[in-house]
């Protein structure tokens, strides 16, 4: 059993944990992507103390930014480079058909 001072220190350690132990939210990309806007959003995530992001491309991306297109890969490169500079973790989520095909209505 923890002594009172140990418990207090543990609570304080959790309450003031380093950013690297923060949340890592899913970042849904489901509409036209603008690298400048993505960098603004990443800066906002960082300013709010998130530890990183899980990029999750979804149905809704326009045809020219569909799965593995040069335009989508550019967005990945820009965001991942900035996240690295900020010390943020980054990951890409791929699941089913949600991320592997464009929205035919946005051609």
Question: What features would you describe in this structure?
Answer:
The chain is α/β, with parallel strands linked by helices and 107 residues long. It is 39% helix and 13% strand. It contains three helices and three strands; from the N terminus they run αβαβαβ. The protein has helices at 4-15, 35-47, 70-86; strands at 26-29, 52-57, 89-92. It has a three-stranded parallel β-sheet, with helices on one face. α2 (35-47) packs parallel to α3. The radius of gyration is 18 Å and the shape is elongated. It starts with a helix and ends in a 15-residue tail after the last strand. The model has no long low-confidence stretch (mean pLDDT 86).
Summary?
With 107 residues, the chain is an alpha/beta fold.
Topology:
Layout: H1 4-15, E1 26-29, H2 35-47, E2 52-57, H3 70-86, E3 89-92
Parallel strand pairs: 1-2, 2-3
- Order of SSEs, N→C? HEHEHE
- Low-confidence spans: none
Beta content: 5-15%
- Secondary-structure-derived class: alpha/beta
